[in-house]
Structure formats: structure tokens, C-alpha cells
Amino acid sequence: MSAHIAVVGASLAGLRTAEQLRIAGHTGPITVLGDEPHLPYNRPPLSKELLADPGDSDPARLHASVAFRRRAVVGDVDFRLGQPVASADLDRGLLTLADGTGVRYDGLVAASGLRPRRLPLPGPRRGRYALRTLDDCIALRGALRPEARVVVVGAGFVGCEVAATALRLGCRVTVVEPSGAPMGRVLGEVLAQAVQRHHQAAGIAFRTGRSVAGVLGREQVSGVDLDDGTTLGADVVVEAVGSLPNTEWLARPGQPAGPDLTDGVLCDNRLLAVGADRLVAVGDLARFPNPLFDTTPRRVEHWSIPADTAKRAAATLTALLADRDPDPLPFTPVPSFWSDQLDLRFQSYGSPALADEVCLLEGDPEDLGAGFLATYHRQSRHVGTVAVNLPPARQRALREAFTALVPAA
Ligand SMILES: Cc1cc2nc3c(=O)[nH]c(=O)nc-3n(C[C@H](O)[C@H](O)[C@H](O)COP(=O)(O)OP(=O)(O)OC[C@H]3O[C@@H](n4cnc5c(N)ncnc54)[C@H](O)[C@@H]3O)c2cc1C
């Protein structure tokens, strides 16, 4: 098949889709366009190993695993790096790059992921950080000096990982979170409170139920004002307050029809964009229904999802370009993620955030380090599992058990 497929976004989902297109039998040209100057790399180490180790600045080591697979499977893919795509004419099959160059395509893959949401507050820029890219990580770790006063805004997984790493580097760390205990939306109140106590005992301070009302300082950050009138001194402020989908290049101002970009790219269960032809979406950007849970389309921001969605989206696009019907079997990936914080390794399967009930199966919330297991249920149906510090063999078994336990919707 000689059709040209363009992939926008040269990160994990873009790379994996290029690989899967070849595996699915696509022999025509593939162009992967990425705005970052780097080859695809893994983001999880950016808040963990790479942020912690100032001596390790070799990007080759960071993306060794993915770069290896790129050479093996997709050597004939044209990677055009440092090339932001400015817009897409979906009717004519034409991308326009930021430098004005046009790129024609027959099939399009949206793999442009997310960018950090920033606090909508004025104030100095120096000393304020967000973390999404390798360059963000290198900039932040230069600021995490021993004794630096670090305020992390947002106690989600990335915020808590940055807080843990900063503590390890000798910083004085406070986490500010407007809702309750850290990662509470996913872990549930009991486990989240236990994690907060664990992290506090290690030396991380928490200001929960509080939000940042102002950033202080002239050119360099000197602190933040909280909404209860108190002030925290700070040399570094890390804004870990969620992400925004990179969909602007797909917007069609003034045109009523087109893809639904309300929160990422709305797709059907085959990852075909609703309201657009020959466009599939993958990775963090794709909002799709997963019949494992229900019929509501959702985006999933886990490292495992690029590989899962790439496989299905590549099969869908290859079939469409060959005038075949895409595979009708439901796409039911099991979301899974891990998180390393201090001496705790969290492992999650399914969608614990959907639960209305949590069952604590094993372990003592006051001693999470010794191992802990909870299952998550919605209307009595198992929708998620969270393990803390369980050995790898048990984690594998939990994943398999999860797939068997959850009935299709
Ligand atoms: C700091 C951090 C730690 C994480 N830790 C974990 C973890 O421990 N466990 C876990 O399961 N998950 C973790 N994740 C999540 C995981 O890394 C993501 O789910 C994964 O990277 C998503 O890959 P993606 O390719 O869909 O999107 P992205 O990685 O966001 O890639 C999208 C790419 O497209 C580029 N792009 C955007 N717009 C354009 C445009 N117009 N033109 C060209 N290119 C464009 C972007 O610059 C980017 O390079 C972490 C994420 C971060 C940021």
C-alpha cells in the first residue's frame, strides 16, 4: 500500500504507532513530525531517576529502550524533529508546519499528547517550573539544590513524585493541594491519608485544602501566598496542576463540522476520530470508550496506553486505507500505571478513580512500606486494583486477575 501516513507527535504514542503500522502491513511512506528536538524518549524517569541524578544527563541512556526498538522495527520511517505542525486541512489531507511547509497525507495519526496546565497567576517567571519534557527536567533539576525551599503545587502523581525526588536531593519541600489528601481522586480517602502520613514522616510538609493565591518576588520567586492568608517562602515553585491536550493544530475555526476536540480527540472504540475521515488518535490525546468499564469516552494518561492504542489505531487506519472494514472486536485495554515515591512503589490496574467503594485487602495503612493491596468497586463491580510494594510476581498475577474479573459492559 503506497498511501502516505503522517503522525503528529514524536513521542511514545507516535513511535509505537509507526511501528504498528509496519507490523499491520503498511508499506507506504510514514512521516513522524515532532516539535521537540529529541528522538522519542520515556517520560516517567523525568520526575524520578533523571530528576534525582544530576550526573546522568545522557539522553541516549534515557531513551535507550525505545530508541532500540525504533532501529529494529521502523528504520524506514522519516522522523522530522523540531517541526511543530501548525494546522491540518482535513478535507484536503494537508498539514502546514510552523515554518509554512506543506505535508500531504492520505492517513493521519494524532499523537500530540499533553502540555502542563500553568497557574493563571502573575509574578516572576524565574523559579517557576512545570514538568513534561526532557528540557523541563534538566531545567528543574538545576534548581533543586540542597536546602532549597521547594513548593510543589498539586498533589497528583507527578507532583508527589517531584516532591519525593526533591526531598531526596536535600530540599525543604511543601506540597500545596486544594482538595484533600494526595492522589485522593485515584487512591480513595483511606489510602491517600495513609500516603500523606507516610510522606510527612519522611519530611514532606503538606498544606491540603489550600490553594495558591499569588506568587511573590520581583524577578525571582521568593514565595507563594495561600488562600488562607498565609505565606510560604520558596526558591522553587513547581506547578503540577494537570495537563491540557495539544489539539490546537486540529482546530477548524469557523467551520461547524470536524473532530470533537472538547477534551483531547473524541474517538470511537476503534480509535477513529468522530467527525473526521482517515484520522485516528493515540496515547494521552485519545478520548475513547472502553467497554471494560462503560460507554463513556475517557482519556487515559498512563505509559501503557500509547502501546495499546497504537496497535488498535494502526490496524484501523491500515484497514480504512485499504478499503477494508476495521476490526469489529471491542478494544478493551487494561489501564495500568506505576509510581515511585520515596520507598513506595505504587502499581495500579484498571480505573480505581471510577470506584464508589474501596476494599482494603492486605496490609496496614500505617505501614505501607511493608506491602498493601486494595481493590476498587463501582456498584459492586471490580474496576481497579492498587498495590503498594508488592513483589513483581504478585503484580503480574494481579494484572491477569483483574482482566478476568471485570466483565465487559
Ligand atoms: C513527568 C512525568 C512522569 C510520568 N510518570 C509516569 C509513570 O510513572 N507511570 C505511568 O504509567 N505514566 C507516567 N507518565 C505518563 C506517560 O509518560 C504518558 O502517558 C506518555 O508519555 C504519553 O505519551 P504520548 O506519546 O501520548 O504523549 P506525549 O508524551 O505528551 O507526546 C506528545 C508529543 O507530541 C508533541 N507535539 C505536541 N503538539 C505538537 C504539534 N503541533 N506538532 C508536532 N508535535 C507536537 C509534544 O511536544 C510531544 O513530544 C508520566 C508523565 C510525565 C510527564
What does this structure look like?
Keywords: FAD, Flavoprotein, Oxidoreductase. GO terms for molecular function: oxidoreductase activity, acting on NAD(P)H. Its cofactor is FAD. With 409 residues, this protein is an alpha/beta fold. The chain has three domains: 186 residues, FAD/NAD(P)-binding domain; 126 residues, 3-Layer(bba) Sandwich (FAD/NAD(P)-binding domain); 63 residues, no CATH class. Helices cover 25% and strands 28% of the residues. A five-stranded parallel beta sheet has the order 3-2-1-7-19, with helices on one face. Strands 9-16-10-11-12 form a five-stranded parallel beta sheet, with helices on one face. α1 crosses α9. The longest helix has 18 residues. The radius of gyration is 22 Å and the shape is globular. Flavin-adenine dinucleotide binds next to α1, β2 and β22.
Secondary structure layout:
Elements: E1 5-8, H1 12-23, E2 30-34, H2 49-52, H3 59-62, H4 64-73, E3 78-81, E4 85-89, E5 94-97, E6 102-104, E7 107-110, E8 114-116, E9 128-129, H5 134-143, E10 149-153, H6 157-168, E11 172-177, H7 184-187, H8 189-202, E12 205-208, E13 212-216, E14 223-226, E15 231-233, E16 236-239, E17 243-245, E18 265-266, E19 279-281, E20 286-289, E21 297-299, H9 304-321, E22 336-341, E23 344-350, E24 357-362, E25 372-378, E26 381-388, H10 392-405
Parallel strand pairs: 1-2, 1-7, 2-3, 7-19, 9-16, 10-11, 10-16, 11-12, 18-20
Antiparallel strand pairs: 4-5, 5-6, 8-17, 13-14, 14-15, 20-21, 22-23, 23-26, 24-25, 25-26
Helix pairs in contact: 1-9
GO cellular component, one term: cytoplasm
Protein name: NAD(P)/FAD-dependent oxidoreductase
Keywords: FAD, Flavoprotein, Oxidoreductase
